Amino acid sequence: GASLSIGATDFGNFAARMETAARAGDAGMIARENGAFLAVLRNLAEDIRESLGRWTAARQTPQGEDLAGRQLEALRSALTGMDIAAANRLVTEYSALSLNGRARKTLSDIENHILLFDYDKAVEAIDSFCGRR
């Protein structure tokens, strides 16, 4: 269940099938599928390591309003295109950055608008930050 909540659906679904087999006492299925299950687990662990590496590198790179503006443009595109999954991913990535006060405040405002499903206001906040008003 936890893996499904973080978007690791392949692993989560596989784990659920293995758990069901274990509860049913189906040792044969577990023995047959264990290698594939471990391969999916290794892939998930590698994906997590890579993501953490990117997150760590982003936090160690000096950030300023210039980078914030570029990232906000990507977020604006996601919001205007109604790609809410991408918008949520970008906000999460953006939150991990070391930002100055103005950029941090803008991000907080944008997050609040997104949480309230007010995407137009989120876009307005981005436009204001980027000097489009």
Class per helix and strand makeup: mainly alpha
**Low-pLDDT sequence parts:** 62-66
Name the shape in a single word: elongated
> What kind of sheet is the major sheet?
none
Helical region count? 7
Mean pLDDT across the residues is 84
What does this structure look like?
This protein is 80% helix and 0% strand. It is an all-alpha fold and 133 residues long. Helix 4 (65-80) runs antiparallel to helix 5 and helix 6 (101-115) runs antiparallel to helix 7.
Structure keywords:
133 residues; mainly alpha; 0% strand; elongated
Topology:
Elements: H1 2-5, H2 9-23, H3 27-60, H4 65-80, H5 84-95, H6 101-115, H7 119-129
Helix pairs in contact: 2-3, 4-5, 4-7, 5-6, 6-7
Task: Explain briefly what this protein structure is.
This protein is mostly helical. The chain is about 80% helix and about 0% strand.
